[in-house]
Amino acid sequence: MKKLLIFLFALTAALSINADNKYLVGDGTRIGWDGGETRHRMKMMETSEGVYVWTGPLKNAGEGFKIVSGEWWEDPGYHPSKANYPIGDTGTDTYTTDGDDKWNPTYTDWTIYTITLDTNNGTLSWSTDFTPLTAEDDGYIYISTAEELYKLAVMCKSNINEDSYKVKLTSDIDYTAYKDGSAACIGLFEDIAFNGEFDGQNHTITINMTAYSSRFGLFGTVNGTVHNLKVDGKITATSRNQIGGICGLLKGTGNKIYNCISAVEIVDAQSGDGTIAGISSVTYDVTSIENCAFYGKISAPNRTGCGGIVGWSNNGSETTIKNCLVVAETNWKTGSDCQDFGRNNPTKTNSFRVDATDTSLADGQMTYKLNGYVSGGEDWFQTFGTDE
User: Fold this and answer.
1) 333-363 residue pLDDT tens
2) In whole angstroms, what is the distance from residue 87 CA to residue 277 CA?
């Protein structure tokens, strides 16, 4: 446990992203020797110069695992000091870049390991000290720190049984130290989604992430609900599209994002179809986004196909955008297929886009309209002179 705490607190320092990325590959990982995009979930974080860390599930299977460099597994590879080197609870080995031997976990069941590759000292270390977050008597996991939020991301990445989580925030969280999207994103891919309920309890999570995959955001895939949350900060895309201010993909009939604000700036200098959006880049199934606002910015001057709330509604009108507001700067390609609210004809109900200087924002008219023209509505509220 002590090693884990030292590791987690060390990550509060700025994390760098090196072009010389390191990946775990092999039978002992969830993806085996898969050469496709799913390999990316095994990417290690460079926590300091020459030191790479990965936390996730491993088990005794076949050839175990090795570590490779680069997106396409370029040399050098990193291998144990002897063939089929067993790794148990904790330990350190001196690696070699010769041969093709593998490390092999001793556990036959999936076990969460923290693997540290130190290229300064020529070692690979491991531990099984990771302690998952646990629910209280009411069934909720309570999160108050960036380290705990990162733990949730690890748990989703390691979710072998597709468990569902109920989460509540108890404070604002500065998550900006966790820049590497491959590790910090909650539910990075569709098959390791965030399943369940995330209640922000009107708190703010501030991010500064580099997008690592398509359908990316603070949440990658949400198969459940997110509500009462504000997400602030910045997401930078360098090699992927489909970025959302809150999530990359919202899926599952009846699932929704509601009572949320995105104040995220999404920066993307690439060209072509962006499918960038203020709330969710893509939606599947009969889903809805309700009582949400996008106050951020889309800085993607060469991108097409973006939206203020949703980038692409895969099932068209089965996605509902209701009582939503866009007051964002959207610098996307002029004349392209970009929409104020969403592409592929989602059902839009009582939603508005205005400029930040629009007088209806400050004088209460917009709040009145967003509540369906009902005075005293409980979804949207405003204190005159304070909430401009």
Assistant:
1) 977 789 999 999 999 999 999 999 999 999 9
2) 44
Annotate 129-163 with DSSP letters as a single string.
Answer: --------TTSPEEE-SHHHHHHHHHHHHT-TT--
Evaluate whether 221 touches 187 at the Cβ level (below 8 Å): yes
pLDDT tens figures, 58-75: 999 999 999 998 766 666
Tell me the two tokens of residue 333: 């390609």
In this model, does residue 378 exceed pLDDT 80? no
Closest by alpha carbon to 46, among 74, 97, 90, 10? 10
Q: Which residues pair with 205 in a beta bridge?
A: 173, 231
Print burial letters for 267-300: b (CB count within 10 Å at least 16), e (below 16).
Answer: bbeeeebbbbbbbbbbbbeebbbbbbbbbbbbbb
pLDDT band with cut points at 50, 70 and 90 for residue 3: very low
User: For the chain, how are helix, strand and coil distributed in percent, rounded to 5?
Assistant: 10, 40, 45
Over the chain, what is the mean pLDDT? 90
- Identify the sign of the CA torsion 263, 266, 267, 273: negative
Element spanning 252, H or E: none
Name the residue among 67, 51, 116 with its Cα closest to residue 90.
116
Q: Which two structure tokens, joined as six digits, stand for 181?
A: 């999207």
Confidence (pTM): 0.90
Mean pLDDT score, 243-253: 97
Which backbone phi and psi does 3 adopt, to 5 degrees?
-60, -40
pLDDT tens per residue across span 68-117: 987 666 667 899 999 999 999 999 999 999 999 999 999 999 999 999 99
Burial (CB < 10 A; 0-12, 13-18, 19+), residue 73, is middle
- CA 16, chain centre distance (Å): 17
Identity of the residue numbered 39: R
Percent of the chain with pLDDT over 90: 73
Nearest to 122 by CA among 102, 95, 149, 103: 95
Longest dimension (CA), the chain: 73
Cβ(75)–Cβ(143) under 8 Å?
no
Stretch 190-203: mean pLDDT: 95
User: Considering just the CA atoms, what is the radius of gyration of the chain in Å?
Assistant: 22
- 249, 220 contact by CB (below 8 A): yes
